[in-house]
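Person: Please comment on this record:
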Amino acid sequence: MSHSVLDCKKVLDTIVRLQMRIEDRFPGSGLGQVCGELIEIARQTDQTIRLIQQPSYKYRILVFAVVFILVVIAGLGWTQRKVSQDDTVLVNMVQVLEGTINILFLIGGAILFLVSIENRLKRQKVIQAVNILRCLAHVVDSHQLTKDPCFADTSVLRTAHSPERTLNSFQVCRYLDYCSEMLSLVSKVAFLYVQDYHDPVATEAVNDLEDLTNGLSTKIWQKIITVKSIPGLQSDTPQDLL
């Protein structure tokens, strides 16, 4: 395996390891369950990629059959055309030529539509998978919303609907880091779909997802930097840093 190619199995192994790290640190947490969903998606990704890479002979045979039928019908219509004495008139010849060109354009459009069916079906699979990953990215972001650096300020008065903040500064930092890692892995899973499938629309969808995860991760890291600036955070032992 080339080092310049993203390996689906290694990505999956990384996600599995991330879930184990989350469960070790925060047993039974919702973030760990979200990571479990990402594992299931990553496992299905390899199968979906194989389906995309394999040519669909069923659709290709259907396309060739329909194209052949259209060409035969157009040819028979032209050969069966009755030639009258008026056909020698220039006006009638122009009308016949115009009708022929229109028919050729219609047949060409139909052929182009049929030929693109296979690629559009593959593109649809990729976009559907990317949309699922996009939803998962928003779910990950929702889990870090209440992990606010202001928890360290004990002078802040809680309201009746304030979220519970039971984590210390180090735990909050680790939780946010796990969220950032998961967002990065979400974008890696999405890229696997277009690594060997070069479709502009599908690639744009993956790039949009990557922009989303980068933006969410940047927001998370701003929180991490704020939390790390709190005095006493570095008192944790080195083995607790993972």
